[in-house]
Amino acid sequence: MNGMHFTVAYGCILVAALLPYACAWLAKAHGFGKPRREGGYDNNEPRAWLAAQTGLSARANAAQANSFEALPFFIGAVIVAHQLGASQALIDTLAVLFVTLRIVYVALYVAGLAAARSLVWVLALAVNVGILLAGWR
Residue 27 belongs to what domain range? Predict the structure, then answer.
């Protein structure tokens, strides 16, 4: 092979790609084990069931959607940084920081802390831009 290897940043892509599924589980968890007629999770109509949820479940579902929305830019930024020959240590550090901020973002979203959540969202976006530009010469 040409010396390519699976980097920490690529591992962060995997974590970021799994994060929306963790949010989905959080959104649905309170409905597991309950009959549908008592408000339990409806696997026949999961989107309609989620749309009717409020509170933590609704916020976790919104965090899921936002996590999916953030994913393409992150994946692209990591790939571009690698292709431009950016410092691997810098890419890895920024990728870990991005994923950490996204996990904090989800926690703040689920907790209903909107102002802090928005600040963390901006920080994660800035880190992602930093990843993309890391190889700019």
Answer: 8-133
